[in-house]
Amino acid sequence: MTVNAAVKWLKRNLFSSWWNGALTLLVLYIVWSAIPPFLDWAIVHAVWSGEGREACLGPGKGACWPFIFANLDQFAYGRYPAELRWRVDLAFLLGLAGLVPMLIPRVPAKLWNLGYLVVAWPMIAIVLIAGDRPGLVGVDTDLWGGLLVTLIVAITGIVASFPLGILLALGRRSEMPVIRTLSIVFIEFWRGVPLVTVLFMASVMLPLFLPQGVHLDNLLRCLVGVALFSSAYMAEVVRGGLQAVPRGQYEAARALGLSYWQTMGLIVLPQALRSVIPGIVNTFIGLFKDTTLVLIVGLFDFLGQVRIQLSDMHWSTPQGAATGYVFAALVYWVFCFGMSRYSVFMEKRLNAGQIR
Amino acid sequence: MRWSWTDPRMRALVWQVAALAATLVTLWYFAAMAHQNLARQHIATGFGFLDNTAGFGVVQTLIPYSEESSYGRAFLVGLCNTLLVAALGTVFAVMLGFVVGVARLSTNWLIARLATVYVETLRNIPLLLQLFFWYFAILQPLPGPRDSLTLLPGIFLSNRGIVMPAVETTPSTAAFVLCLLTAIAAAIFIGRWAKARKLRTGESFPTLIVNAVIIIGLPGLVWLIASAAFALAPPVMGKFNFEGGWRVLPEFLALLLGLTLYTAAFIAEIVRAGIQSVGRGQTEAAHALGLSSGQTLRLVTVPQALRVIVPPLTSQILNLIKNSSLAVAIGYPDLVSVFAGTVLNQTGQAIEVIAITMAVYLIISLAISFAMNLYNARVAIVGR
C-alpha cells in the first residue's frame, strides 16, 4: 500500500515524462557529486580536536574545526579585553530584552518598546561598551572587533536611518518642489553609488571636511557613512508604505482639521510603517550583509576577524581558509535566514485581512 | 499674498527657503573647511594630477597601458575592467536567474527543491564572504601552472587562472565578418517580411530554417572557399607559467563567479514572482484556444510576466554593477581598486578621486535606469 503510494508520488513528482525523468537523473547526479564530498570534508575526514596547526596537517585531512573552537572569543569580541567582555554581554542582553517583545506582535506597548530600543538602549549600550564614563574602564574602538563590530554597524545603521528615512520619504512625497527636489537628489545620490565608495569617502575624505582639532575615529566615520547610505534605502521602503495608504485617509485627517504633522504622525505613518515592516526587515538583512564591507577600510568586523585569525601562523593550514569561510558563511546564513523567515511571517500576518 | 503664518502658501514658501538655505550653508561650511584643511596640508586641488605619470602596473588592461601612462589612463583602464566584469556578470546572472526562477516553479519536486536551496543559501550569505570563499578557499589552493587541471582540451585551470588558446585573425577574417553581418541583416529583414506577410495573409513562412541556413551558410561558404577565418594559438608551457594564449585572472574568475551566483539568486526570486503574478486563467485560456505549452509560455505568460519582472530586475542589475566594486577586496583591478585605491594613495587627491569615482557610478546607474525604463515602456500594457 505505502510502497504503491510512494511509487505513485515518484511517478507524479519526479518522472511525469521522459524529459522530466532525464532532468531528475541529471539533478540526482549533481547532488550525488556535490553532497557526499562536502560531508566527507566537513565531518568524516575533518579534524575535531587539537591544539595547533599540526593536528590539521597531513594528506586527506578535511576541515580544521579546532581552529574555530580555539578562536570563538576573538570572533565574537575581537581584541576587546577579556575581563571586560561582560559589559558587551550585558548590553547585548539588554537589547535582546527590548527586541524580543518588539518582534512578538501580541505584546502591547509597542511605542514605548520602540522608544526604548531606538533611544534609551543605544545610549546605555554605548556607555557600557565604550566605557567612557567615570567609574568604568574605557575601551578604545581599535580594540573592538568580531561580531560586536558587525552588530554595532548594522544596528547603528538601521536605528539612525529610521528617523532620517522617514523624513526623506515625507520630503519626497511633499508638495513643496524645493523640499521634494532636495530629497530626491539626496536619496538617488546615495542609492546610485556603491557602499565601498561611501566607506572610502568616510575614511579618507570626511576628515578633510571637519574643523581642525575635531577627530572622529575610523569606526565612527564609517558609521556616519553607513547611516547616510542606509537612510536612502529606508526612505524608499517607507515611501512604498506611504503610497499604500489610501488618499481618503489623508483627506479625512485634513477635513478633521489636523495639521500636517498630526496627520502624518497620528494617521498616515502608523498605517504606512506597519505595512512596511517586512521591507524594513529586508533592508536590515541587506545592511547586515553589507557590514562586511567595513573590513575594506580597515575595521575588523566578524569576517575581518576571521581573516585575521586565518593569518595567524599558529593555525595556518591548507584547509584553514575553507574552514574559516564555511563557518563564517554558516553564522551569517543563520542570522539572515532567521530574519527573512520573520519577514515572511510578518508579511503573511499583515496580508491576513486580504485573504478570503 | 499676505504676510501671514496662517496662509499655507506662505508657510510652504518659508519652509522651502529655510531648507534651501540650510542646505547651502551646510555645503558652504564643508567647502570652506575643506579649503582650509587642504591649504594647511599643502594639497593642491584640481584635476591636473590626471596628466601625471602613474608609475604603477596593472595586471589586466583592456586598453594599451604601461607604467609611463598617466593617472587618467589608469582611470580608463579601471573603468574598462569594471565594465567588462559588470557586463559579463549581468548576462550570466540574468540567464542563470531565469533558469533557477523557472526551476523553482517546476512540477519536478527535486528540481524545485534544489532551486529553493540554491536561492536561500546564496542570498543569505554576504557577497564579500562568497568572493573570499571562491578566491581564497577554491582558486588559490588549486595546483600551479605545471600541474594545471584540463577543463577542455587546450583550456587549463590553475591557481593563476584559466589559460586558453588565443583566437587570431587570418587573411579571410574580414570577408567572414562581412558575410556574417550581411547574413544577420538579411535574416532580420526576412523575419520582418515574414511577420508582416503572416499578419496580412495568415500564411506561415519557415523563417527559422531559412534564417539558420543563411546565417550559417553564407559565412560557412567563405570559410570553405577561402580559408579558416580564425586560427587558434594554444598557450605554451614556459619556465614557470604558460606563455601566449588568452589568460583569465583568478581574481576576475572569482569576482565573476561571485557576482553571477549571488545576483542570480535574487533574479530567480523576481522571475518566480513575475511568473506567479500571471493568473492561472491566462494559461488555461491559452490552452483552451489550442496553443501548445511552448506557445503559451512564449506568447501569453512571458510577455505578461515581463511587466512585473523588468523594474525589480533593473535594480538587481544596478546592484550587480555597484557590487562589482567589491573587486578591491580580492585585488581585481577595477575602477575602485585602481583609481580610488592605488591612485588615491599615490596622489592624496581624496576629494577629486572619490568625486570622480562616485560620478562614474552615478552616470552608469542613471544610464541603465534610462535604458531599462525605455524597455519597460515597450513591454508595459498599451493603453487605449
Rg value of chain B? 27 Å
Q: What fraction strand of chain B?
A: 5-15%
Q: Which regions of chain B are unreliable across 5 or more consecutive residues at pLDDT < 50?
A: none
Low-pLDDT segments, ≥5 res of chain A: none
Which strands sit side by side, in order, in the main sheet of chain B? 1-2-3-8
Quote the distance from N terminus to C terminus of chain B: 43 Å
The count of helical stretches of chain A stands at 15
- In CATH terms, what is the fold-level topology of the domain at 71-142 and 256-379 in chain B? MetI-like fold
For the sheet with most strands of chain B, the description reads:
4 strands, antiparallel
CATH homology-level superfamily of the domain at 143-304 and 331-354 in chain A:
MetI-like
Strand residue percentage of chain A: under 5%
Secondary structure tally: strands of chain A: 0
Q: In CATH terms, what is the fold-level topology of the domain at 143-304 and 331-354 in chain A?
A: MetI-like fold
CATH architecture annotation of the domain at 143-304 and 331-354 in chain A: Orthogonal Bundle
Which features does this protein show?
heterodimer, A: 356 residues, mainly alpha, 15 helices, globular, B: alpha+beta, MetI-like fold
Can you summarize this structure?
Chain A has helices at residues 2-13, 18-44, 53-56, 65-77, 85-103, 110-130, 147-172, 177-192, 195-205, 218-244, 247-255, 260-275, 277-290, 302-310, 320-350. Chain A has 356 residues and is mainly alpha-helical. The radius of gyration of chain A is 25 Å and the shape is globular.
